[in-house]
Design goal:
The protein has about 100 residues and is mainly alpha-helical. The protein has a single domain, classed as Arc Repressor Mutant, subunit A (Orthogonal Bundle), CATH 1.10.10. It contains four helices and three strands; from the N terminus they run H-E-H-H-E-E-H. Helix 2 crosses helix 3.
């Protein structure tokens, strides 16, 4: 697993959605829950997958109609790193808000 070279608020939002999910989740749910547009979420998921934080697979539910869904989940190392990253970001932004209050 590679460290992320850049962590943006959008990255934190996507990681938060993935950390909060107990099962693999599909991209449109991440878009909905993060409030970020598809043009932000899908490139982030691809970057997270290339870095080894996330793994994905195609949904194999033959009974569901419509296009196939790509399901995403954190790897075991990615889950630990994501939790730490989200926690550090929350601590940093809370400290910034507190310092300026």
């Amino acid at each position: 697993m590679q460290p992320l070279s850049r962590i943006t608020p959008a990255t934190i939002d996507v990681l938060t959605c993935l950390v909060g999910s107990t099962d693999a989740t599909w991209g449109l749910l991440i878009i909905r829950d993060s409030g970020r547009p598809a043009g932000t979420v899908y490139p982030l998921l691809e970057r997270l997958e290339r870095s080894g934080w996330v793994e994905s697979e195609w949904d194999d539910d033959d009974t569901r109609t419509g296009p196939r869904r790509r399901l995403y989940r954190l790897t075991s190392d990615g889950a630990e790193a994501a939790r730490n990253t989200v926690r550090q970001y929350a601590t940093k932004t809370t400290g910034i808000r507190t310092a300026h209050a």
